[in-house]
Amino acid sequence: MPGLLAQRTCATVRALRTSRGMAVSVVATANGLPDPASSHNRPDQMAHSTKSGSPKRYDVYGLGNALVDLEYSVDDAYLRDMALAKGHMTLVDESRIDALAASLDEHEPKRRAGGSAANTVFAVHAFGGRCAYSCRVAEDDLGRFFLEEFGNTGVATVGTRDGQGRSGRCLTLITADAERTMTTFLGASAELGTQDLDEAAIAGSAYFYVEGYLASSESGREAAVEARQIAELGRGRTSLSLADPSMVINFRDGLIDMLGNGVDQLFCNEEEALTWAGTDRLDIAVAELGDIAPFLNITLGARGSLAVAKGRGQFAPGFPSQAVDTTGAGDIYAGAALHARVNGAEPSAAAGFANFAAAELVARHGARLDHVADYVQIKARYQAP
Questions:
Q1: Which of 48, 73, 175, 262 lies at a CB distance of 3.0 to 4.6 Å from 56, suitable for a disulfide?
Q2: What is the mean pLDDT of residues 6-25?
């Protein structure tokens, strides 16, 4: 129903006013990414711009769960039979994940090293950035698989490699409408803590990025807070993703702890933004979230996204795509946006590139792309509108 979609987009654009009565201007994205041929953009010559102006060792230091995604195609009846909330992430215990896996025994899943922040960091690296990732895995097959996939691509992993119990995994269930429903057993990731941080690497990064999923874990929250404080002392920028509506609903206090007095960059989707603000008006949500972060990106599905920079919002239109799997769209969006911002792109230009990357991902199955070369090709094909 493209007509209704276009009407809704226009209505959203017209509605963007802050609760203080100040108009948030909305214009189409026109800026391109910085010239990839310039020395500023070459990975081997990046002198990253930060608040202090000093060069940084890494573009992004990420903190989050280390999960192996097991992707299955299912129908809506399966979700109903298993009492799973469609389109949301549900944390489950070991017995529940084993029971669900057993019910899917006749299906052959596709395995990928993942987790929300892991997917974002992988994207930044694959687009040409330099990254490190703090995580925790057990000494088992899934843990070794995760570390091998990341290690083979050149992402530096920091943290515990021989944690107790089993490594985390996520059953990602894709229905015919391309919607993803996730059930996650955190396993060793549930014990992710301050001992898994590398203070020097955090202080030496242009951005510290953390996933909101850590709000569900006390030790994870503590690690996120400490890492944010280290980044702030090192004059790096801090960035957080709200991750999922269930996190906003069930772990809001934990997210507030992680956000502290605010972060530099906040990522969320429309549902998460509206849920956070307790409203059905996006302009109100923009105003409230703008008090948390001067730079805010709100994804709007196929319509595109909003890039709000210090109170001024710019609408970046989406790109045509035949979606088959929306898993990881927000993760690659954040990765593309961070990569562009590190390399000097304006917020609106970064949002345009991020929209393009997300549109490319959802046309394929999986929470991230299979190979670094796939990301390189996306970056090469991108033409700013």
A1: 48
A2: 35
